[in-house]
Records
---
Amino acid sequence: MVSTETPWWLGAPTKLIKKTTLVPAAPNHLPVHTLTFAIPKDDSAFSGRAKPHSEVAIELGDVVKMVIPGYKPKSYSMSAIRDGEFDITFKVYPNGRASGFLDRLNVGDEMGTFGMTAGRHRNPGSFVGCIAFGVGITECLPVAQAELEKGDAEKVVLLWASRTMADTFWHDKIEDLKKKYPDRFQMAHILSREERQGCLKGRINPELLDQVFQPEDRSQARFLSVGTKEMMRMTDKMLEEIDYPMPQHALLPKSQKHR
Ligand SMILES: Cc1cc2nc3c(=O)[nH]c(=O)nc-3n(C[C@H](O)[C@H](O)[C@H](O)COP(=O)(O)OP(=O)(O)OC[C@H]3O[C@@H](n4cnc5c(N)ncnc54)[C@H](O)[C@@H]3O)c2cc1C
C-alpha cells in the first residue's frame, strides 16, 4: 500500500515574511542575513522527530531544520522567536547549497521547516563561558541571554572569534545586554585578521581561554562552544588542558539517550 501521508522530514510549509541584511556582501566578507518566517499554524503537520516551532528550546541549543529542496533538511539555530514568527540568521557560503537556497528566497516564498531537539540538558552553576566561532554567535548569544535571564549564573562571559570586526553583527543586542547586566555580562572579541584596540588578536588557545574566563569558583564553571565540529572538539580539548574536564564542565551536555 502506498502511503499518502507527507513524510515527517518535509516539515510544514513556512512563509518568509522578512529578510534583513546584517553583514552586506563585500570582497573580504561573506554576507550574513536574518530571515523571519511566519510560524506554521497547524501543529498536526509535525510527526516523527519533527517538533512544532513553539517547542524549540533556544536556550538548550535546539534547532530549526530548513528543508532544502532536492537536498536535505539542514540545521540552523533559531536566533529569535516572537509571537507568530521566528528568525534564523545565516552566513552565505560561496556555492553553499543550503545557504545559497536560503539567500535566493524572496519574501512571500514558502519552504518546509520543522523544529528538532538537540537532545541536551542544562548544567546549572554560577559561571558561564561561551565561545562563538564566526556565525556560531547565532546560538551563543541567545543562550548567553537566556543564562542571564535565569539568574543562577552570577557571571556570563562571551568570547567571539571573528576574522575582522566587519564580520561581526548584533552590536545593538550585545550593547543592550551590557547595559542591562553591567556586573554580570562580559563580552570579549578575538580577531584573527585585524589589530583593533579593545580586542584580542590571533587565535584561541588554552592560555587565552584561561585569561578570558576567570570564575571565582572553578568548580562552578560551565562552557559552551559553537562552531564547526572540529572547532568545538578542539575547544573541548583546550578546556581540558586548563583543567575543565568535559562534559562535566559543559553548559549543555548531551542527554544520556542522545549520546
Ligand atoms: C546544530 C547546527 C546549527 C547551525 N546553525 C547555523 C546558523 O544558525 N547559521 C548558519 O549560518 N549556519 C548554521 N549551521 C550550519 C548550516 O547547517 C550549514 O552547514 C551551512 O549553512 C553551510 O551549508 P551550505 O549547504 O550552504 O554549504 P555547503 O554546500 O555545505 O558548503 C559550501 C562551501 O562553504 C564551506 N563551508 C560550509 N560550512 C562552513 C562553515 N561553517 N565555515 C566555513 N566554511 C564553510 C564549505 O567548505 C564549502 O566550500 C548550523 C549547523 C549545525 C550542525
---
Amino acid sequence: MPKATEGPCNVPKPGVLDFINKAKWDAWNALGSLPKETARHNYVDLVSSLSASSESSIQVTPAADRKQPGSDALVVTSQDGITTITLNRPDKKNALTTQMYHDIMLALEAASKDDSAITVLTGNGDYYCSGNDLTNFTDIPPGGVEEKARSGAVLLRDFVDRFIDFPKPLVAVVNGPAVGISVTILGLFDIVYATDRATFHTPFSHLGQSPEGCSSYTFPKIMGPSKATEMLVFGKKLTAREACTQGLVTEVFPDSTFQKEVWVRLKAYSKLPPNAMRISKQVIRNTEKEKLHAINAEESNILRERWLSDECMNAVVSFLSKKAKL
Ligand SMILES: CCCCC/C=C/CC(=O)SCCNC(=O)CCNC(=O)[C@H](O)C(C)(C)COP(=O)(O)OP(=O)(O)OC[C@H]1O[C@@H](n2cnc3c(N)ncnc32)[C@H](O)[C@@H]1OP(=O)(O)O
C-alpha cells in the first residue's frame, strides 16, 4: 500500500507489461497529494476492485501453479502406427501456454524415437489452436521484461528447432481455426489436412509482432512473396480452400466427414514401411535444415525485440483487458 504509508507517488513507473504493479502505480500516482488517511481508504478500495477484476480479465497465474507435464492440456496417444499429440484446452481455444511449449517438445522427442510411423498434431474442440497464450506475457520473472523476452526467444527457437529436425512424417490435422504460431509452423509439416471450417490467420502486425516458425522463409517459398506478405504483414485470414490453393494446406475435407476421412487415410499411410518413409522425408527436407535453423534463430531474435516494443505491449494489454480480439 505505497500511498497509504509513504505519501505522494515517488517511484518510477513500472513497465507496461508489469500489469499489477503498473495498475497500482497508476492508482497511486492518480492520488496526487491526498492526505495519507484518504489515500489509505482509496487504496484499499482500488486493490479490492483490482483483485475482483483480475478474476475475469488480467489473471496472472504464477508459473508454479501452471499445469505440469502429464496434465490434460496436452494428450499424447499411440495407436495403429500413429502417435497423436492433441492440444487440449478447448475452453481457451487451445492457446499455447509456456508449459505446453515444453510438453510439445518432450512429446516430439518421444515420438521421434517410438515405434510409430507417423506423428500427428491436432486440437480438441472447435479450434485447432489460437496461437501463443497471451497471458504468457504476464508471467514476469525477477529479471523484468527484458529477461522475459530473452527467455521467450530461447524457448521459441528451441520449440521451432524440434519441428525442423523431426525425422518422421509429421501431419497437421487442422480441426478448426488456426492462429499465429500454429499457422507459421505448418510450413515445417509434411502434410496438412484441414476441415473446411478451418481458417489460417497470422495477425502479427496487429499484435506488434513479426513472423516466426520459419514462415518468413517457408511462406514465400510455398505461396510466393506477395501472398505471403498479405498473410504475414497485413494479417489476411485465409479460408481452408484459399490456404489449399496457395499450397499451405494439402487437402480440405467437409467438416461432417473430416475426422473419418482423415484417419482412414492416415491409418493406411502408417502401414507403409516406416524406414522408407523416414529416409524419404529426410531426402526431401535435409538440404534445407541448416538454412531453416539460421532463419529460426534470426526470427526469434527479432521477436525478442518486438516483444519489448510499445506496439506489442499495447496490443497484449488491449487483449488482456478485453478491449481487443482478432
Ligand atoms: C515461447 C513463446 C513463443 C511465442 C511465439 C509467438 C507466437 C505469436 C502468435 O501466436 S500470435 C497469435 C496470438 N493469438 C491471438 O492473438 C488470439 C487471441 N484470441 C482471440 O482473438 C480470440 O480469443 C479468438 C479470435 C481466438 C476466439 O474468439 P472467440 O470469441 O471465439 O472466443 P473467446 O475470445 O471467448 O475465447 C475463449 C477463451 O479463450 C481465451 N483465449 C483465446 N485465445 C487466447 C490466446 N491466444 N491467449 C490467451 N487467451 C486466449 C479467451 O480469452 C477466452 O477466455 P475467457 O473465457 O477466460 O474469457
